[in-house]
Amino acid sequence: MNQEKDFSPLTPNIVRALNDKLYEKRKVAALEIEKLVREFVAQNNSTQIRHVIHILASEFALSQHPHSRKGGLIGLAACSIALGKDSGLYLKELIEPVLTCFNDSDSRLRYYACEALYNIVKVARGAVLPHFNLLFDGLSKLAADPDPNVKSGSELLDRLLKDIVTESNTFDLVSFVPLLRERIYSNNQYARQFIISWIHVLESVPDIHLLDYLPEILDGLFQILGDNSKEIRRTCEVVLGEFLKEIKKTPSSVKFAEMANILVIHCQVADETKLTNDLIQLTAMTWMREFIQLAGRVVLPYSSGILTAVLPCLSYDDRKKNTKEAAGACNHSLMKLVTPEDDEDTEEERSGVTGSPSAGEGPPRTEGDSGDMLNASQESVGLSSISFFTPASSDRPQVTLDLDGIVQVLDRHLHDSSTGMMTRIAVLKWLYHLYIKTPRKMFCHTDSLFPILLKTLSDESDEVILKDLEVLAEIASSPAGQTDQASSCDITDNKLVLKVPEGPKAGQQPAAGSKAADSSPSTPSMNSYFYKFMINLLKRFSLERKLLENRGAFIIRQLCLLLHAENIFHSMADILLKEEDLKFASTMVQTLNTILLTSAELFQLRNQLKDLHTQESCALFWCLYRSWCHNPVATVSLCFLTQNYKHAYDLIQKFGNLEVTVDFLMEVDKLVQLIESPIFTYLRLQLLDVENNPYLIKALYGLLMLLPQSQAFKLLSHRLKCVPNPELMRTVEESKYMESKKQAAGKRSSHTQVDYSELLQHFDRVQSKHLEVRHQRSARASDHHDRKLM
Predict the structure, then answer these.
(1) 788 and 676 in contact (C-beta within 8 Å)?
(2) Where would I find the Vacuolar protein 14 C-terminal Fig4-binding domain in this sequence (predicted)?
(3) Is the domain defined by 1-164 classed in CATH 1.25.10.10?
């Protein structure tokens, strides 16, 4: 430094001492400066004061010589001490050169700068708050300083500054938050510790309403929660806990909507191997649960994102039990927010400006159209990288349910083969809930959902299948699914167009108020999707025979509980009547017949068929019989069930013309076992009345003659030996027989009589088709065998 340069009012001795390498000499010079400045203060000579500060800053603190910089720092601190309460007038000139030295490469100089700033702040106290951002920025750098002495000095300064902020009621939070939001994303452990400690302090000050700015820093807090340091994580947990307590106390002032997407991001785990991610996810899920309960319908526009985060957590094992429970609570609370009012058109929809399809606006968006949705699975790296759902207006009184987004999320989870069982169940519960609460809007999505709902019937879990059947049953029975409404959503564009078959000639009445073409005449209480469902279900059974073998009876029984059993059997019989795959038709009839005769769910339907008292029961018998003809033994069992014993005997007489195979004999064997079951108790009791039931006995003897000497043969033979007075087993004269049956027939009204001769002709036609198909199959097999030999 040029010793001859004029540094007045600083004396040459002061200048020399400030440049000395010894700390003691620089300290003596600082005392002289303090004395000099006090004189200027007493004289109210601010010009000289500023001149002294300027010299110390420009010629010393910012000098290229390290000892001069050290002298300048201690000199500036001395000025501040001398100024006392008036130092606030000169703080900008005092602080800025000191903060510049925070970046010095010499650790000792950084320590002296920290010491100098401590003295300046200690004197100025609250006057430094207008310069808080500068001080905070400097301190955040020192917090990560590698030198322990510098770190220790910065911690002392940090505590002092926190005390000043805590005592003050003039802290400018608005100007500070942008800096806090920027620094909160630091990856340095010490910087994070510094940041979280300041947030903790600010949050605890009653006059500083940091909660108003929580959306600005919440993402950063969750980033810090994933720090490797246990101490930092614990502090961050405490801070988040305090914020959550305050949110619960004053929910009306909380900006729930602005934070919903941040929670969605952190409710999802990018790397499940990191234990810290589990803590982040659990905390975010806990917050989400509270948000849904406190904010209510305000979160509905964000529901698709919430479900994206929540649904996978429902399949967690006990290692993440707490997260799973929190996710379950979120899911339950969110579902409760959906109400029938969400099925009503919003003002935008009524005026034709809407982002979601309504009835008559064409098909819904598919997954490929969802590019504008939040990709909530992306790893968050800060608020700048977060995509937001944007509601139309944050202060809008009417909250719009994001139905399109929800359906896309649910559909995506059903299509994903890796989705856990509990998640699939939750997805199906959501779909069922939406069809109950918002049926009109949901039916616009039915065509896109229908294939995956049918595919889900092949799920390994019975519980999943049950929920899936509930959804399908609701679709099939909801009034919103009638043809006139459904057609507005382009149902007819589906490849599987609803076909309305001809019903039995015994008159069927359509449901009151519905169009004749809305459903099959066989299913008057169902909508147009019901018959479509039955067609697709049978088609799936045809393509997946193992599904039919393993789950077919289970699925059909459950449908009989969820929908009217008569509708199920009537519609399936209608469809099977036109089935081209005769082998499948026979197998399906056998399955339906077994269900009809053995399942507790079909008790009422069996009673309806037992006596054929009504026109409806006769019509049902007619419909079933025509399809049951695909399987001769099933047809006989249907006749036994409906007490058409003479017709059963006539059918058995025709069995001599059929190809008797091992499978055929096994079916007869099963029928004999069924005759011995409780279902046919009434039939066995009728064997006591030989005179009035001769054709029952002859039909049973016909079955006996068909059977080889097997266990079933012995069982039926033993039963027939128990029939009393064998002489009465001869056939009575036709006139006497008709007279004896007249009283029993009195129970059946005249208009319910069935033309059994026509039924026999139909049986012959169907069996002729089966015989032709078997011959063709045998011929093809023979040709194939001959070609192999050649």
Answers:
(1) no
(2) 545-723
(3) yes
